[in-house]
Amino acid sequence: MAQLDSVVTDDTLPPLLDEPWRPIDPRYCWVLRIVVFIYFFIICLAGVVFAWLGDPVVLPVIGYLLGGVGTLGLFLFFVWAPRRVRHTQYLLREKDVHIRMGFWWHSTTSAGNNRVQHTEVTQGPIERWFGLSKLVVYTAGGGQSDVKIPGLPTDTAHRLKNYLTQQVVAEELLDAAE
Predict the structure, then answer these.
(1) Entry pTM
(2) Cα dist. 145→3, 26, 138 in Å?
(3) DSSP for 56-107?
(4) Distance between first and last Cα of the chain
(5) Which is it for strands 132-139 and 147-153: parallel, antiparallel or unpaired?
(6) Are the C-beta atoms of residues 148 and 99 closer than 8 Å to each other?
(7) What band does 90 get if pLDDT is binned at 50, 70 and 90?
(8) 158 vs 76: CA distance, rounded Å
(9) SS percent in the chain: helix, strand, coil, step 5
(10) CA-based, 20 to 30 A from 97: which of 18, 23, 56, 129?
C-alpha cells in the first residue's frame, strides 16, 4: 500500500533549540591554545631566522609582520579559543546526531543514523595529554556532512561511538526484516 507524502510545515518540525545540548569539555580550550601557540611560535621563529639572515632593509617589514602575527596569536589564544569551546555543543538523539559550533559564523551539522557509514575516535598527542578525544561520524553524504565532535573525554567518546554503532546496526536489522 502506498503511503501519502504529507506536507511538513515549520510548526510541525521538532525544535532543536529546546533539546538538551551538551557542551564539550572545557579543557579543550587548552588544547586549542597549545595548538595556536605552537603554530605561531613556529611562524615567529621562521620570521626571526629570516630577519637574521636577510637584508637589513627588510627588517622593519619583518618587524611589522611579526607584530601583526603576534597580535593575531594573542587574539586567538585569549578570545577565539574560549569562545570556540563555549559555542561547541553536541546533541545525540535516538535517530540522529548533531554538532553546532562557531565563533563568528555558527553552523549546525546533523546526520541521521541511517546515513552513518562508520564512526571513529581520534586523539592527537595534545588531546591525549588532557584525556580528550574527537568522535568522527562519517556519513554517506561526504566530508561536509560528517559530524566531528571534538573535546570529549575519551571514555565518553567511546561510549558515544558504541551507542551510535548499536543504533545503526539495529536500524539495519529493522530495515532487513521489513
Answers:
(1) 0.84
(2) 28, 25, 8
(3) GGGHHHHHHHHHHHHHHHHHIIIIIHHHHHHT-EEEE-SSEEEEEE-SSS-E
(4) 14
(5) antiparallel
(6) yes
(7) very high
(8) 30
(9) 55, 20, 25
(10) 129
